[in-house]
Amino acid sequence: MGHGPSAAVAGTGVDAARFRSVLGRFATGVVAITAIETGTGRPTGLAANSFTSVSLDPPLVAFCVAHTSTTWPRLRGADRLCINILSEPQLEICRRLALKGGDKFADIDWTESPNGSPLIEGALAWIECSVEREHLAGDHVIVVARVHNLDKHDEGDPLLFYRGEYGSFA
Questions:
Q1: For a FRET experiment, which of 1, 32, 72, 110 has its CA 20 to 30 Å from that of 150?
Q2: Which residues are 130's β-sheet partners?
């Protein structure tokens, strides 16, 4: 089955383009999931708009990562991850972290979270966590993470993703 604009999602009869278009009407924030890569000691990260709180007791959050991600395997081995809630002026950081290969953190200012994960300057808030479980879900992995520390970081408006575009509140 093809993956063109009118291709159906395998075995469902649901048109892939229509699925993307309809679900794109749900506005989401954008996060950068960062860590210090085990073995290299270098910061790495990826951008995601599928992030949510899951549980207060115990404190859990979740995000989704595509199976095709080459960065997730480098993040998952870290003791701690830092989820950075991106602000509206951080679109370029989002785009940089979405690239494949290269030094994603070149020209990104960051400090260390309490346990040493990359905390991106200008992020609205940060959540330090560790991977609790991974669940296979279609072409993605749902990652459930336990929160260890979190705080507000900077003021401003959130970076939003809506109908395939990035932006902010009008």
A1: 72
A2: 146
